[in-house]
């Protein structure tokens, strides 16, 4: 499904508001100076997304996932490559990948960060689109191309909203991917709610 330039602008603004709120919470909870932005947003079919997976998350990736349902239904995820995940954890905790307890610290830190970012994004969507959403318990997965786990086995008909998130932490740039995977037939409801927030273009009276 293709989106108009106005819809893409509205999506970008909506997601940036959400991750901006998440950044404020992260700074407060983690006592770190984190800036978050999402300069690029794409709407992809499952087939288009599959063709991009190697570029987005080749190798081991870490993902935090949260199911949502209401007027529209799907899964929200925050995904990091292994390098980005390890770098972010090192900056925030001082732990190194070769430390004995690094895996436990990593799981805990990324789960907390993922929950805050996803909740910021979904909270923004819920508030601005006036949509009452319910959520599942968040989960964390780290494996070879964990990014694939955001798609169901039968992905035909799913629509993926892909936001390329940028984390700026103490002058370091770390990239992650925010993914909203809408189940079959659910994305149109999301777009309809989004369209209701976009002001109509009115002719200029001279």
Relevant CATH superfamily: CheC-like
Distance between the termini: 37 Å
* Biggest sheet descriptor: 7 strands, antiparallel
Poorly predicted ranges: 201-206
- Roughly how many Å is the radius of gyration? 17 Å
Give the overall pLDDT as a whole number.
84
| Count of alpha/pi helices | 5
Query: SSE order, as H and E?
Result: HEHEEHHEEEEH
Strand content: 25-35%
What is the CATH domain class? Answer: Alpha Beta
Shape: globular
Percent range of helical residues = 40-55%
Number of domains: 1
**CATH level 3 topology:** Chemotaxis protein chec
Instruction: Provide the structure class.
Output: alpha+beta
| CATH second-level architecture | 3-Layer(aba) Sandwich
Q: How many beta strands in the DSSP annotation?
A: 7
Which descriptors would you attach to this protein?
single chain, 206 residues, alpha+beta, Chemotaxis protein chec, seven-stranded antiparallel beta sheet, 5 helices, 7 strands, 29% strand, globular
Would you summarize the structure shown here?
With 206 residues, the chain is α+β, with helices and mostly antiparallel strands. The chain has helices spanning 5-30, 46-57, 82-93, 102-128, 187-195; strands spanning 34-45, 60-69, 74-81, 134-135, 139-144, 159-169, 172-182. It is 42% helix and 29% strand.
């Amino acid at each position: 499904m293709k989106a108009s330039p106005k819809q893409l602008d509205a999506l970008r603004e909506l997601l940036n508001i959400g991750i901006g709120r998440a950044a404020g919470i992260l700074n407060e909870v983690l006592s770190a100076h984190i800036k978050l932005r999402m300069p690029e947003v794409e709407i992809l079919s499952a087939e288009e997304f599959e063709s991009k997976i190697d570029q987005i998350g080749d190798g081991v990736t870490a993902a935090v996932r949260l199911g949502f349902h209401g007027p529209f239904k799907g899964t929200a995820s925050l995904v990091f490559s292994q390098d980005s995940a390890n770098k972010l954890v090192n900056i925030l905790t001082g732990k190194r990948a070769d430390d004995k307890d690094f895996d436990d610290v990593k799981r805990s830190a990324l789960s907390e960060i993922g929950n805050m970012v996803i909740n910021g994004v979904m909270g923004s969507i819920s508030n601005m689109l006036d949509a009452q959403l319910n959520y599942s318990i968040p989960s964390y997965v780290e494996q070879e191309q964990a990014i694939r786990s955001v798609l169901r086995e039968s992905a035909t008909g799913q629509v993926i909203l892909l936001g390329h998130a940028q984390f700026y932490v103490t002058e370091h740039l770390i990239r992650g991917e925010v993914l909203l995977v809408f189940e079959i037939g659910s994305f149109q409801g999301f777009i309809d709610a989004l369209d209701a927030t976009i002001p109509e273009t009115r002719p200029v009276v001279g």
